[in-house]
What we know:
The protein is mainly α. The chain has helices spanning about 5-10, 15-35, 40-55, 65-95, 115-125, 125-135, 140-150, 155-175; strands at about 100, 105-110.
Amino acid sequence: MTEKELIAGLRKGDMTAYEHAFHLYYPRFVYFAEYIVKDQHTAKDLVQNVFLKVWRFRDRLKDNLSLVNYLYVLTKREVLNYLRGFKAIESLQDELAGNYAGGGGELVETQVDSAIVRERIHALPDKRRRVFELSRLWGMSNKEISKALSISEKTVERHITLALKQLREEFRNEK
């Protein structure tokens, strides 16, 4: 099956074309993603996401598209988004873990696990969580967030301040 036939089949919703493309390209892109993220399980998840996106938006595929190049671009974006989120969580861990003053004025070093950070972020009130994730995990500016969510920049700042305060208090109380 040629690339043009694969694309035509995908656009029509032909599951055989999808499976053929998956089996043909999946190993190559898992290898590519694994080279960057250094974890095969994560690489497989990322490439599966890419193929889900291809299926979901199959009606947008153009006839003259190079499927290999398209998959490469999607995989690269997926990997970079993953790394951006991973680095943001590490940065947030550092921000939350910092040195806290204990009751007697001594400095207390707190270890913060990334899974716990994600769990706590997920437990924030809905709007606050959304604002916080856009700011800290996706690196959007307050102005971009205010436009995206149709709220004022002051409201964005307030949500971020309250989220950080809540998260810091929760981690401080754990100690």
